[in-house]
Each structure stands twice: as C-alpha cells, then as structure tokens.
Design a protein that fits this description.
By secondary structure, the protein is mainly α. The protein is built from 4 helices and no strands. The N and C termini lie close together (8 Å).
C-alpha cells in the first residue's frame, strides 16, 4: 500500500492524473466537459493533459517503471 503523503505516493498520484487527463483530451466530449478551462483550479487538469500528450513516451515509461516498482519492490 502506498501512503499518499510520501514521495512515492505523490509521484504515483501525479502520473495517474497526467495519464487520465491525456486520455480525456483524446475523447471530444470529455475534453469539452473537463478541459475547457485553462485558468484556475481546473486549469491544472488542462496543463496535465498537455504534458501527457506532448511527452507521451516519457510518461508511459515512467508509468511502467512505477508499476514495476509498486508491484515488485513495495
């Protein structure tokens, strides 16, 4: 189990948010609902989706490495 207040937990949470927002950016209806705001609190999700789509290879590798870390080393 990963603690949310540890560095591992924050890293896993941020990677999951980036992956989820990048997926939501690919679906037109979800993009219109969740990623239309570019400023404020909801702007964080827009920025995470931009990071996820522009850096999709490093994000996928990091997600895979974190999955291996959680499954085997934790």
């Amino acid at each position: 189990m990963t603690n949310a207040y540890s560095f591992d937990g924050m890293l896993i949470f941020s990677i999951l948010v980036i992956c989820t927002c990048a997926y939501m950016r690919r679906v037109p209806r979800l993009k219109q609902w969740f990623l239309s705001e570019k400023k404020g609190f909801l702007g964080v999700f827009y920025k995470a989706s931009v990071i996820g789509t522009r850096l999709h290879i490093p994000v996928a590798l990091t997600c895979t490495l974190m999955a291996v870390y959680v499954l085997l080393l934790k």
